[in-house]
Amino acid sequence: MAEPLITLKANRLCCQVCGEHFRNPATISCGHSFCMLCILNRLDRDERLKRACVCPECGHRFLSRPSPIRNTTLADLVRDMERRDAKRKHPGESTQAPKRATVSCVETGTSSGSNLCARHSCPLDIYCCTDERIICAQCASAEHRGHTIGYVREERRRKQEELRIIQTRSKQILQEQEKKCKNMGKTLKQIPEEARETQNSCESVLAGIIDSIQRHYMSVRELIRGQEEQAAAQVEISLKTLQVKMEDMRKRDAELDRLAQTDSDALFLQGWLSMQHLCEKEYLHPLIEDSEDPLLPFEFTKRAVSQLGEQLEKFCDQRFSLISQTADGGEQQESEEESEEDDMQQRCEASNTQSNGLSGATNMTEENVEPKTRAEFLQYACCLSLDPTTAHENLVISAGDKEVRLSPLKGKSPAVRCPQRFLHRKQVLCREGLHAERCYYEIEVEGDKAEIALAYKGIDRKSRSQLSAFGANAISWSLDRSANYSVSHRADSVQLTTCPSQRRLGVYLNFKEGTLSFYEVSGRMMFLYKVKAEFTEPLYPGFWLGEKCCIRICDLRLDEL
Predict the structure, then answer these.
(1) Can you state the angle between helices 296-327 and 152-260, rounded to 10 degrees?
(2) For site-directed labelling of 471, which of 24, 168, 178, 382 has its Cα 20 to 30 A away?
(3) What is the tally of helices (H) and strands (E) in the chain?
């Protein structure tokens, strides 16, 4: 049966991108068709340039990249047109090749360097994209029906473009590798210099630390020398006083012996009346009252330096271990470990300002950002302990100097009389003076009335006036907890509307910025009040206790775990 004649203009079967007959034609969503490879290359180019995909024929802009669909009908039309063109060129040859002839024209033509098909003597100007072979028109019509067919020169142009892209990319990769190699060479030369610079820098820092410790060591020696002189002077004064009183007693004993040997009764009675008053006065008052142990300051100094040494040693071991891990390419420590190390630094600084007045270690540099959550506050936690030598005689300290309550026996005399003790107010101070840049601690209160305060070391402890009360002078600040909260300083009180709802309270001190903040602590931090001042000395936490009240300093190390 003869094939029907289809009248088509040649340009209808041409791709608007390459201008050649369609090769594996594909249609996009706007309805226009192009060579599959041409439209894919065009869409790839639009994406590389980061612009909207556009139809090359009608200019339609697509919101997203279209997916070309193979147009089999158009492919058949192109193949039929090429077959008719081949018949016009070779009218005497049959388009049907013998089925037994399956030798490729590529194997018989191009292998020998000829540009003609060995079987049909036709130009090898057709390329079968399906089989990836160079064939002639007759081979295409006979053995490659339904395959994707194209011209050799057009296929060469496309492959040439692919080759050019690969060459360009290869050159780019080579240039990048050469640049990287050059940089590595520079880095290799910089390594010895950088190592020497790092060594010098580290030696300078460590030498500075050693110098700082040496200075503190000299200050400790001066402190001990001062304690020695003060203790010796105190004992010498007491000794001289005792010797004077003993001499007076010897003289009085001699007079009593003479009086006892008097024979006259009248003279005895007259002499006894004058001696009796002096003897009774001497018996009512001891020769010397109990005073502070002169060796006690030495014990405080040894204890504080010993604690400082242990904490510094542990801190240095942890920090240098972290430096080694970082230098070896190890992963950074978890946030809990970092918090623990920051905590150790803060405790180390706080312990240096105990009763012997030792100066603190170097502060950690922190960003000027106020903490918000309790976890952030705990990064600045400091370790506190109550100082029994400052406690009023009616206060009982227990639980490792972490808890204070009123004694059930009022007016009980202390075992050791200390000049640092509050005589007339039920108050107590902590051993540690806070002067690190940021400090945070928490306490738990049982009872209705209590005061949570911070004061300078020189607060009056003997007076019955308001000057010895927390918050009633210029060197102390106090949060008063009763039916409502109030904050006191210089005897001025600010009444807060907040009623106590939690037993645990948090105190946050930013010594450098001069702020003191109070919080109620539960699942979250409830802000109470912030004090702004200019702190010039270390601040010692202190407490005043009302009836049936108990205050406990919280161990924040357990909360961090």
Answers:
(1) 170
(2) 382
(3) 10, 21
224 Cβ neighbours under 8 A, 6+ residues apart = 298, 301
Please report whether residue 344 resides in a domain: no
Cα angle 113-115-119, degrees, rounded to a multiple of 5 = 100
In tens, the pLDDT along 528-547 reads 999 999 999 999 999 999 98
Q: Does 51 map to a domain? A: yes
pLDDT digits (tens, 9 = 90+) for 157-166: 888 888 999 9
Sign of the CA dihedral running 422, 428, 430, 431: positive
Exposed/middle/buried for 385, CB within 10 Å: 0-12, 13-18, 19+?
Answer: middle
Give me the residues paired with residue 61 across strands.
Answer: 54
DSSP 453-511: EEE-TT---S-SSGGGSTTSSTTEEEEEESSSEEEEETTEEEE-SPPP--SEEEEEEET
Check: CB of residue 520 under 8 Å from CB of residue 409.
no
Burial (Cβ within 10 Å: 0-12, 13-18, ≥19) of residue 245: middle
Alpha carbons 189 and 179: distance in angstroms, whole number: 16
Q: Which residues pair with residue 135 across a beta bridge?
A: 126
With respect to residue 239, please indicate whether it lies within any of the assigned structural domains. no
In a domain, 528, yes or no: yes
With left for phi above 0 and alpha for psi between -120 and 50, is residue 58 left, alpha or beta? alpha
Task: Please identify, among 66, 89, 112, the residue that sits at the C-terminal boundary of a domain.
Answer: 89
Residue with tokens 């226009």: 32
Q: What is the arrangement of strands in the sheet containing 25-27, beginning at the earlier edge strand?
A: 33-35, 25-27, 69-70
Position of tokens 């395959």?
A: 147
pLDDT at 145 over 70: yes
For residue 43, report the phi and psi dihedrals to the nearest 5 degrees. -65, -40
Q: How many CA atoms lie within 13 A of 25 on its CB side?
A: 24
What CATH code is carried by the domain that includes residue 450?
2.60.120.920
Domain that holds residue 380: 374-560
Structural tokens at position 101: 């002839």
Tokens matching residue 140: 């295409």
Length of the chain: 561
Count structural domains, the chain. 2
Q: What letter does residue 366 receive in the DSSP assignment? A: -
What are 37-70's pLDDT values in tens digits? 889 888 888 888 888 899 999 989 998 889 899 8
Residue 74: CATH number of its domain: 3.30.40.10
Asked which of 89, 112, 127 is the last residue of a domain, the reply is: 89
pTM, to two decimals: 0.39
